[in-house]
TrEMBL record:
Keywords: Signal. This is ABC transporter substrate-binding protein. Residues 27-368 form the Leucine-binding protein domain. Residues 1-24 form the signal peptide. CDD domains: PBP1_SBP-like. It comes from the Bacteria. SUPFAM superfamilies: Periplasmic binding protein-like I. It holds the Pfam family Peripla_BP_6.
């Protein structure tokens, strides 16, 4: 009788043992919810390639963390805010992901933020830029490895904000553009530079004649150095279109932030133009960036691009948070990530505890052109370290 009882007990324990083994081997699921198709497809591909490289680097090539494999589930928002919201709900509710990463567009990101709060799950925003994502529209489940509008603005203000400079701005008429110019205006305070005109146009604008004329009219009679500052993402080539309108007749110069390599081809006519950028593969000097450049050249035949570094940073941050917390529980991850410092291709980043924005270095550049290089080179003037970036707190926990 006792042997039978023992045998029955052993049989009853077997499912529990196998269940424990299955649980240990279940993948940790991460959703990449991003605009895989659409006008920002190039940005999206870079972001995803970078994410996968980041996960690989941070796990030492095993693609495992906490003894479990990492499974990345891709979801294409097609740059549609409603689609982004629906897909994030699906990722949390049906796919049961531990966390999500994305999207590309600020407009899509703003639609996704409430979903993270509703489900109590982390959304790591990369690379959407609008300040409001970790600001007035953010919540405690939102972290961002990507730079925000204020980081763009402060870095560019450092690069071109000098006493007596008069500036007109051209930006896209949605969250990315308006948040960016607001942050730029604020960052210029105390520099002695002044914005005298702001111009906003639809994101799909191709004819910049009217906008350009209004900008030139606002600047032409000003004294001192006169600059048009472009804050733009995607196509349309506004710098090239305004260049064709002969700004030189009014002694007007151009300035802008960095961009992807294909867009830097359009910077070639602007030798000597200054600005600040989030990333150019020759700017950072650290082992992770060396690895990224080497691996990207080997696998894809090109240097890593603007958003590749961002995607890699997000992948590293996700793995580091899981390793340090030792858990997939959202609250444990939040506790770990608030104030967390981690190394990336750009050097050290830190998730600020108050608003979960990653503080990070930016790069002051001057455009030069070299034979044999198909794009204009944003030659490093100097790194602007995170300690020098006085970035306004977006949302106070």
């Amino acid at each position: 009788m006792r042997l039978t009882t023992v045998f029955k007990s052993a049989l009853m324990a077997l499912p529990l043992a196998f269940a424990g083994q299955t649980l240990a081997e279940d993948p940790i699921k991460i959703a990449h919810v991003y605009g895989k198709t659409g006008p920002l497809e190039a940005y999206a591909k870079q972001s995803h390639d970078g994410l996968m490289l980041g996960l690989e680097y941070a796990t030492g090539g095993t693609m495992e963390v906490l003894g479990r494999p990492i499974e990345v589930i891709e979801k294409d928002t097609q740059l549609d805010p409603a689609q982004g919201r629906s897909l994030l709900e699906e990722a949390y509710a049906d796919d049961e992901v531990t966390l999500a990463i994305g999207p590309v567009s600020s407009g899509v990101a703003l639609a996704m933020l409430p979903v993270a709060q509703e489900y109590g799950k982390i959304l790591m925003v990369e690379p959407a830029v609008a300040d409001s994502i970790t600001g007035e529209n953010g919540n405690r489940y939102i972290f961002r490895t990507g730079r925000n509008s204020s980081q763009d603005a402060v870095a560019n203000a450092v690069a071109i904000g000098k006493p007596g400079v008069k500036i007109a701005t051209l930006a896209q008429d949605y969250a990315f553009g308006r948040d960016g110019i607001t942050a730029f205006r604020n960052a210029l305070e105390g520099s002695g530079a002044e914005i005298v005109h702001e111009e906003y146009v639809p994101t799909d604008t191709n004819d910049f004649t009217a906008a350009g004329q209004r900008i030139f009219d606002a600047l032409k009679d000003e004294d001192g150095e006169k600059i048009v500052f472009f804050y733009w993402a995607g196509g349309g080539n506004p710098m090239g279109k305004l260049k064709a309108m002969n700004p030189e007749r009014y002694d007007i110069e151009f300035a802008t932030g960095g961009n992807i390599l294909s867009a830097l081809v359009g910077y070639k006519p602007f030798v000597g133009m200054e600005g600040a950028t989030y990333y150019y593969y020759e700017s950072p000097d650290n082992d992770i960036n060396d690895w990224l450049v080497e691996q990207h050249l080997d696998r894809f035949g090109t240097p890593p691009d603007f958003f590749t570094a961002g995607g890699m940073s997000a992948g590293i941050a996700a793995v580091e948070a899981l390793k340090r917390s030792g858990d997939t529980d959202t609250e444990a991850l939040i506790d770990t990530m608030e104030g967390m410092r981690f190394d990336t291709p750009k050097g050290e980043m830190m998730f600020r505890a108050e608003d979960h924005q990653a503080l990070q270095s930016m790069y002051h550049f001057r455009i030069k052109v070299e034979d044999g290089v198909e794009w204009a080179i944003p030659e490093l003037v100097r790194e602007i370290p995170l300690e020098e970036m006085d970035i306004p707190v977006g949302r106070d926990n």
